[in-house]
Amino acid sequence: MKKLGTVNHPLTLAQMLSVVAASLGVAVGIAGCQVVSGFSQPSLVRVIDASYIAPAVNIYVAKTIFAGNVGEGYISNYGTTAPSAAAPVSVTSAAGGTTLVSAAVTLKAGARHSVFLTDNGSTPTLYNVSVLEDQDIAAASGHSAFRFFNQAPRTGALDVYMVPADTTLADTIPICTNVAVGQTCGYVSFASQTVTMVITPTGLTKPKFTSTPLALTGGEVRTVVMVDSQLTSNPPVNVVIADDVN
Question: Are residues 216 and 232 in the same domain?
Fold first, then answer.
């Protein structure tokens, strides 16, 4: 009896193309299976306490504490929460648990957000909660990108200068002008170098804030929150600077 063997026949070009197409179809099908119906990426959230007058506070996002017993100038790392069109945010006194302010904010899937506690300069509600979507990629090579958020109600609208080293304010053009209270300017991109940040009331040249020199090397992305720093009618301005990228 003759033993049966396997005969190998070379594939034609048409057959080879058919096999490749089938393999790609399987690969695409496998990749498609990785997306589960109804699933979305979480939101990334950090909290920033930019209130001058608030006591030590706890800050909750979607009923999860993101910061505990913190004060002015605190910036948390990013945490995750479910995206929502109306995520609850509440700020309570760390000492007694009294709710100081609450709000519902929009948190997008896969995006980064900053939730701010700020002062609003009026009574009976002394504080605001607001949210901004953050840039998540570095600035272009050789450039820096800064965003400015005005939360200085006693000072009013502001101009912002980035004064290069060996240059005066008088010779510098502001990168943001007439930033109203509660409004944002940015992200503004400019050539990276050593600069001094100077903040003035809109149209005036007497500084309300002057930073130490900032040595910028490129790629930096920053959020600057400008706040009143005293409970007087003509207070200086203070800033809280958050590192968004780099």
Answer: yes
